[in-house]
Amino acid sequence: MGRQIRLILMQLGIVIILFSAMFVLNATKSEEQITKVVFRNSPPTDVRSVHIQNEYGNLYVDFMDGGYVLGEVPIDVVDMERFVDMMTDAAAVYAVTEIKRPQSLDVYGLNNKAAVIDVIYIDGEEMTLTIGNYEPISKGYYCSISDFDGVYLIGEERVNGFKQPEKYFISNYITPLMPAQSQSSLGHVKMMTLEGGTLEEKVTLSPVVAENEQSMLDASSFGSASHLIEINGMNHRVDERYASLVFDSVLGLKAEDIIDYNLSEEAMAIFGFDRPDMEVVFDYKRTPDEESVRYEIKILEKSGIFYASCNKRGVIYQISPPYFYGVTLEQFPVRWFFSPLLFDLEALEIQRADERYVFELSGTTNDDLAVTCNGESFDLDRFRRFYKLITSAAHDNTMDEQIELPGLSLMNITYRYRDVNKPDDELNLYAAESRRIYAEVNGLTEFTIKELFYTRVSQALDILFTEEVFEIEW
């Protein structure tokens, strides 16, 4: 299809709405006005070509091989709504008023020719529309039409597209908008990588999808997750609230201005896009049944002004600093270490000094779910409360380099899964300073946790086999 705009993209079922109106013109006493004059009334697909001459130069639209070519505008950046509006105005041409016995054409600006539009239709008919001065009372433009005598007034909205520069027909939306019926961008943005900006290293967010069994296994450590982030070789659940803010800022990314377009890769590189300040790549899926579309955005900052390019379109956009430009690694993973669903667990094991507690679970529904502790039946409601405490284990928003751990662990918490392909998840707690505990998560120690978590779990274990209520807030 090349750079052609296929007819099917011209919007099915275009309805041409013709407004009837009568305006009182403050021209001269010798002028007499009559009602609307229709010169042609056809759909936009009846237009073969349009040649527009205005203060910005020449714009050509041609019908070729079943599609339209719009000047030098690349096909994938055309603002279809504006383009269709302009083509509709070229196909359905009418005036709201005719000026009878007009004065000299100079009075109406028709010799100055603010714009001249030459239209050729599929049936071979031709029409030239000349646009003159603006008439502020009726909010229209004085015009003349080839093969028709007289001066006419055409509504401002039907002339607007003919008075614009070519870049007017380039969409200001750099990336697609989130579908109107959607409540969250989490379901539309799939894989994403971010590099540059305020990030010290590249960040990759991977979607959790049923087609990828490994992602489903990894996500089962957290009960549910839309995306995972890998840090130092270990997957963490992405904080969906933060991810939503980032995804929202990527979708519907809008330009404040079109700086240049139809540029070669060399010209884009000369501008600076061969060394961008930030690169964001993401897969977008409009509906679950559609294929993903990849977008590669490059951000460049010059003297406090931000520019963007996308998918090697050869377009330079000027933008406001986007939210995603300021992302930080620490905000992506959730604070909670593990929170698997009870139905995914085979056992929860806790080791404290020389004490060992093994909670084994059975059943596949709420009706038959049961738990034992060290082989003895255990109250399910009491276990749920205890489990809520265990899965509240969360870091205190600090991430450090790998820490050399001191001596033996204070406590070990192990999650064993029913799925034989799912490795155990293990949390080991070690003594630290300043009322903190080192948290070793699946062999990596990057986080600290408040000492009170360890205290609350120890207190619960001390009275586990009694009916006393233990505290779960820490």
What's this entry about, in short?
With 474 residues, the protein is mainly beta.
Q: What are the SSEs and their pairings?
A:
Elements: E1 5-6, E2 32-34, E3 37-41, E4 47-54, E5 57-64, E6 67-70, H1 80-91, E7 92-95, E8 97-100, E9 115-121, E10 126-135, E11 140-145, E12 151-155, E13 189-196, E14 203-207, H2 213-219, E15 227-231, E16 234-237, H3 240-250, E17 257-260, H4 265-273, E18 278-284, E19 293-302, E20 305-310, E21 316-319, E22 345-352, E23 355-362, E24 370-373, E25 376-378, H5 380-390, E26 411-417, E27 425-431, E28 436-441, E29 444-450, H6 451-462
Antiparallel strand pairs: 1-6, 2-8, 3-7, 4-5, 4-9, 5-6, 8-12, 9-10, 10-11, 11-12, 13-14, 13-18, 14-15, 15-16, 17-21, 18-19, 19-20, 20-21, 22-23, 22-26, 23-24, 24-25, 26-27, 27-28, 28-29
Defining key terms:
3 domains; Dna Ligase, domain 1; 29 strands; 474 residues; mainly beta; 6 helices; single chain
Strand order of the largest sheet: 1-6-5-4-9-10-11-12-8-2
Number of strands: 29
Helix-residue proportion: 10-25%
Uncertain runs: 1-34
Number of contiguous helices: 6
| Main structural class | mainly beta
Overall mean pLDDT score?
Answer: 88
* Estimated share of beta-strand residues: 35-45%
Alpha-carbon distance between the two ends: 62 Å
Tally of discrete structural domains: 3
Q: Over the alpha carbons, how many angstroms does the gyration radius reach?
A: 33 Å
Oligomer: single chain
Shape: elongated
Q: Report the major sheet.
A: 10 strands, antiparallel
